[in-house]
Amino acid sequence: MMIPARILVLGSGGREHALAWRLAADGHHPEVLLAPGNDGAGRCFERLQVSETDAPAVVAACRARAVDLVVVGPEVALAAGVPDALIASGIPVFGAAREAARIESSKWFAKDVMRAAGVPTARGEVFTEPREAIAAFARFEPPWVIKAEGLAAGKGVLVTESSVAAAAFVTECLAGGRFGEGGRRVVLEEFLTGEEASVIAICDGERHVLLPAARDYKRAFDGDVGPNTGGMGAYAPTQRVDADVECVVSESVVVPVLRELAARGTPYLGALYCGLMLDEAGPHVVEFNARFGDPETQAVMPLVGGSFGALLASAAAGALDGAALEIRPGAAVTVALVDEGYPERVRGGGWLERLDDAESQADVVVFHAGTARAEHGWTLMGGRGAYVTATGVDVEAARVRAYECVGGIGGAGWRCRRDVGEAVAPAGGGRHRDGE
Fold this sequence. Notes:
- By secondary structure, the protein is an alpha+beta fold.
- The chain has four domains: 7-94, Rossmann fold (3-Layer(aba) Sandwich), CATH 3.40.50.20; 123-189, ATP-grasp fold, A domain (Dna Ligase, domain 1), CATH 3.30.1490; 193-327, D-amino Acid Aminotransferase, Chain A, domain 1 (2-Layer Sandwich); 331-415, Alpha-Beta Complex (Glycinamide Ribonucleotide Synthetase, Chain A, domain 4), CATH 3.90.600.
- The chain is 28% helix and 29% strand.
- It contains 13 helices and 27 strands.
- Strands 12, 15, 20, 22, 25 and 27 form a six-stranded antiparallel beta sheet that branches. Strands 3-2-1-4-5 form a five-stranded parallel beta sheet, sandwiched between helices.
- Helix 2 (55-65) packs across helix 4 (82-88) and helix 6 crosses helix 9.
- It is globular, with a radius of gyration of 20 Å.
- Residues 424-436 have low confidence and may be disordered.
């Protein structure tokens, strides 16, 4: 078993804080570094002042600190080719190479891979001209699902029954440059209905193991209304993904995709996030992400036992050691604490009081993202500030615990959803978005 003694986690958000927290909990107590990390995570982990997208600087830092394994968090680092630079330098890295990571950075590339691999997914077409895209509405029944074809920080999707709103979104992307290079093409997809699930596979290019399935909440407000966000919370596991569904996901989604990418000369080594819509016909893939989900990771990590570092190191080496993974019983619920105007009108200036008291509670951990230490507690520096994660014997117990802690947090200028983990009717189209 490959056991890394010093691990560098690339990224600055709550996902990276959660990964570092879980890696540090391995029985052999590895040293975990963050680059660049954030103020909250920096209380427990050394931060390196290196940008996660600066490949030469990351390589130099790894050499200077004798890093045994790099774990890549955000998609921007994958798209920047940081794993490629590390591999070329002989530094072990758990993160997909840039060409393989196109399964996230290019939705049309992902569609092509799925078509070739026979993976169930929504019918779609791609466009570069507004007039052609708008004319194609007639070939799809509303609601229309329109996606910026490239990376758009979790905000590049519109699901609407309004042809006026759909046309405006297409025009903003293709003619107005709303999402920059990520929106130079748009994908029009059929609308899928069913129940959502997120399944993350740890892959070594050929083999894989699945982490506990999660359910995330992308809409801004309770009841799954409002605009899409980077993620307002999540819970794991979701009972909808039982052992039988896991087998279907493995055999009908992950294995065919790994084979297809390997056949194209771009073997996939990293975390493959499968955003699924489940219905009576089985799982359909709505999207792939080429990394751990955010905020799903914050809910999944407390359920991961065994030697997580050894698992990732073995996958990075192309020799997956599935025995390194253990799944802990129980459940976890994660609630995001965000700027009150998030996602479209982030005001700034908010703060969180007594957040440290929350994380001192039993069965609770707080993962930081866009926060900075201030005299009155923690200042919100971005859209998503922090995540309260609680564990329990089941989802309901974890949900109650999480909101007990959230209820004790004061301050101003922040909000959260109050329905994460509640029993809700299956939602249609909720996964039609560019995930974050």
